[in-house]
Each structure stands twice: as C-alpha cells, then as structure tokens.
Amino acid sequence: MDVEELLRRARALVGLEVSEVAASMGVDVGVATEGDAVRTKGTPGAILELALGATGGSTKVHDFPELEIELKTIPLDPRGVAIESTYVCTLSLADAEEQEWESSWVRAKLSRVLFVPLVGDDGIPWRSRRVGAPVLWSPTEAQESILRADFDDVVGLIGIGRIEDVTAHKGRWLQVRPKARHGGVRTLAWGAEGEAIATVPRGFYLRARFTSAILVDPAACPD
What is the pLDDT of residues 83-128, one digit of tens each? Predict the structure, then answer.
C-alpha cells in the first residue's frame, strides 16, 4: 500500500459512524452505552486501524511501518474542536537524562501522522461518532522547533530528578500526563540525589488546541 491508497481508504470512510465501519469489517461492537467511551477509549482507533490496513501494533513500530505513518483518531465536537488531548507514546523515565529529541520515539511518531477526526456531540457513545475528513500531517520547521522545546523542557526536569515538577501544565503543545491502566501502576524514576523513586508512568500527549488548529491548517502555530 502507498500513501495515495491509504488516503483513498480513509476518505472512503468519511460520513460513516464508527459502528458502521466496525460492521463493515465484521467486528461486533455490541450495544452502545453512554458510559462505555471511557472504558473502551482505544477501541475506535483499533477499528480504524483494521479498516485502513494498519499492520504495526507495537509501541516501537509505526501503525503503517512501510510508510512510517502513525494513525491518530481525534474526537471532535460539531464545531471541529478537539475535545481531549491526543496520546502519542510513553515516556521512559529511568533514562530521561540520556534522551535527545532527534533520536526520540516521540519525534519519530510525530514525523508523519494521519489524523482521522471522529465527530459528534461531547458525551455521545464512541460508536455513534462519524468519521471526518482525514489530514496527513508532518510538522513544519517552526512546529518542530516548539515541539522540541517542549520535549527538552520536560526531559531536562526529569533528568535532574524533578519528576514531580512535571505536570500537564508544562509544554506549549506537547505535554506529559500520567499513563497507566490504573492508579496502582508504578515505574522507576530518579530523584535529585540519585535515589530510586517509584512513580506513575507518564506519556506524551498533544494538546487539544494544537490538534484542533492543525486539522484546519496543517502549518498552524496556535498560542
């Protein structure tokens, strides 16, 4: 599959409900309920991956390995505004001081992304969201400069043992938030004195205002 074929497949889904896409693939999503969007948050993305022919499936492999393209579904409200931040990848805390933007997995993940909007009123079951027009995006030099600065700021703090100073408020577009199946999950980080700290796993996320902007203008640099 080449890029044009991928885009053709994505555009063919525009206007369909996620449940209709699932049915076309023979996937039984059951009866939609208002509360299941949280419990099965990753399911819409998995359905779109199946429909578009993604073959990655690994944390260290792109969704479309031969194209080096990542797939990200974006829930939008009817005005076209993203209603939540977008998960990119996990952040390794134990070796943060050794990480550099140029060789980072988050940069590789964001080098080429197929964003597929899922449009609907906030709070509706994910099955009822409709597929919007896809956007194939790669960061401009200006965008990458800001993403790099966000990355360096966070990784720098972790590298000097200030993991607890890293909150979702940091980062203009790229933020770090807890990423775990439940509150009891812990991973290793290092404190200011080099002591081992058990802390909640973190992941990189794109802020909603950034994804909202680039879906309209892929070269956008929102405040």
Answer: 999 999 988 776 777 789 999 999 999 999 999 999 999 888 888 9
Q: Is the domain covering 3-216 a CATH 3.40.50.12780 domain?
A: no
Rounded to whole angstroms, the Cα distance separating 118 from 129 reads 5
The CA-based diameter of the chain, rounded to the nearest angstrom, is: 56
Query: Rounded to two decimals, what is the model's pTM?
Result: 0.86
Q: Contact at 8 Å (CB) between 177 and 53?
A: no
Q: Which amino acid is at 73?
A: T
For residue 135, what are the contacts with CB-CB under 8 A and spacing of at least 6?
A: 114, 115, 117, 214, 215, 218
Two tokens, residue 16: 């369909």
How would DSSP label each residue in 105-139?
HHHHHHSSEEEEEEE--TTS-GGGPEE---EEE--
Domain boundaries along the sequence of the chain:
3-216
Question: Which amino acid does the sequence have at 185?
Answer: V
Half-sphere exposure of 184 (CA within 13 A, CB side): 0
Residues 70-91 have pLDDT tens digits of 999 999 999 999 999 999 998 8
| DSSP E strands, the chain | 70-76, 86-91, 113-119, 130-131, 135-137, 174-178, 187-190, 196-199, 202-206
